[in-house]
Amino acid sequence: MFYRDERLALFIDGSNLYAAAKALQFDIDYKLLRQEFRQRGRLVRAFYYTALLENEEYSPIRPLVDWLQYNGFTMVTKPAKEFTDSQGRRKVKGNMDIELAVDAMEMAPHVDHIVLFSGDGDFRPLVEALQRKGVRVSIVSTIRSQPPMIADDLRRQADNFIELDELKDVIGRPPREPRDASDASGSAAAR
């Protein structure tokens, strides 16, 4: 479904892709992901969208965001909004759908094929609009999780559906060996 000479752009809905990979019990190696799609076409740009908690002392996603930024990904971030719901639970909201949609429409004249890493059904009208502009759209998500992580109408609208589980061996990070106490103290001494 890919042509070697086509101009390709990746649009990664960070939280959606993270949730889908977790549901399939693997971590994504973004270096391998970029390499894989470079082999499938002429990769013009790889966008990654995520909301960040700005007021946190340490954000667990910050090292990933920094690594992606230094390794060829175009990072699109905005501050997440923190609130307390009616049950008194702390919630975080940071929807990046509009930013992704605007960027995809702006990129449409410069690419032949867009790969959207998301199963969010809200993107169905975006996919339809991109197709009207002559851009082929592939969706990467999963139907193999319980429940499936892709909206059926999004899958039907796409030119191509790529099952994330089938990419696991290609873009998955190998599981890390658990550190034991002797290893941790030995490596600290070596520093």
Description of the molecule:
By secondary structure, the chain is an alpha/beta fold. The protein has a single domain (7-82, 91-113, 122-174), classed as 3-Layer(aba) Sandwich (Rossmann fold), CATH 3.40.50.1010. Helices cover 39% and strands 25% of the residues. It has helices at residues 14-23, 30-40, 62-70, 97-107, 124-132, 152-157, 164-171, 181-190; strands spanning 7-13, 42-52, 74-79, 81-84, 90-93, 113-117, 136-141, 160-163. The N and C termini lie far apart (48 Å).
Name the CATH homologous superfamily.
Answer: 5'-nuclease
Compressed to H and E, one letter per element, the order equals EHHEHEEEHEHEHEHH
Supply the number of helical segments: 8
Strand element count: 8
Strand content: 15-25%
The level of helicity is 25-40%
> How does the major sheet shape up?
6 strands, parallel
Q: For this structure, what is the CATH class?
A: Alpha Beta
What oligomeric state do these chains adopt? single chain
**CATH fold description:** Rossmann fold
Q: What's the average pLDDT?
A: 89
